[in-house]
Prior knowledge:
The protein is α/β, with parallel strands linked by helices. It contains 11 helices and 13 strands.
Amino acid sequence: MSKTILVTGGLGYIGSHTVVELQENNYNVVVIDNLSNSVKDVADRITSITGKPVKLYIADVNDSASLEALFELEAIDGVIHFAAHKAVGESVQDPFKYYRNNIDGMITLQKIMYHYQVKTIVFSSSCTVYGDTKNSPIVETHPVTEAISPYGTTKLVCEQILKDLCKHSGFKGVILRYFNPVGAHSSARIGELPLGVPDNLVPYITQTAAGLREKLTVFGNDYNTPDGTNIRDYIHVVDLAKAHVKALDYAFEMHQNCEIFNLGTGKGHSVLEVIKAFEKVSGKNLPYVIGARRAGDVEQIWADATKAEKLLRWTCQYDLSAMMKDAWKWQLAFDDSQ
Length: 338
C-alpha cells in the first residue's frame, strides 16, 4: 500500500513540482497551503500533469487546530516541509515576520507530528545557512555558526530543532540545503509564480523580457568575482523536486537519525552569465542597470553535492540553458493564460 505524504506549502514553487514527482512515484499526497505566496488553481494544474487529484487543505501550519484536524482525518506517514517565508531581502527588512512564521511553523508542525507518531520528515533548508563563505564548492560539514540574514537564521534554528528531535525523540529527518532553484515544469503548467514584485533573479528576468517590468537591476558589480556580480549555483526545480522524492525514500529506510544533503549542480554562474544565457535561449535583449549591493547577499557560493549523488543516488539532469528555456516557456504560457 502506498504511503501518504503531507506536503506543507505544496502549492508553492518547489512544493508544487515536488507534489508532481511524488504522485508520479505512486505516493498519496495531501497538501496544506495558506495561499500566502501561491494560488489555489495550482492544484488543478498539478492534476493536469499527473491525472491525479490533489487533496488540499487551505490552512496555515502555524494554526495548531487546523493541523490537528488534518492529522485526525488523514493517515499521514511522512512530511515534506516547505511552508515558510523565503525572501532574503524581506527578512532583513522585517525579521520578526520570519522568526514568527518560519520557526513557530516548524515547532507547531513537529509538535503535532510527535503527538500523532509521524516521525519521518524531509525539511526544506537552504545554502544560506553557510553564511558568507569563501570555501566553494561547499560541503555539508562546513561550519554553520552564523547565517548572513534573518531568513538564514530561521533555517539554522529549524535545522537544530529537527536534529534535537532526531537525537532524543525518535524522529527520522533529512535536511536538504539547496542552492538556487530556477526553471519550470516542461509542460509549462506550473512554475515560479511570485505574488507582487519578484525577489528572485530569474522571474524578474522573465517578467522584464515579457514587458511586465521596465528593467532588471543587478545588485552590485564590484564583488570579487570574474565579472564583479554574485555567483550562485542554479538548479532546475524539477531536478530539485526529484531529489525530495529520493530523500523521502531514504528517510523511510533510515533508523533514528538526521542526515544533511546539499542539492546543487556543483557549478557557479554569475548574474551576468544568467542574463546572457537567458538572452541566448529567448532571443531577447534584456534591459538592465547596475545598482547597489543588496543587504544579506552572499558574494559567491556553489555546492559540493557528492554526498547526495552517493547516498540518494541523485544527480542533476538540466544545465543553465535548459533552466532558462523552461523559465521563459513558463512565463509565456502563464501570460497567455491570463
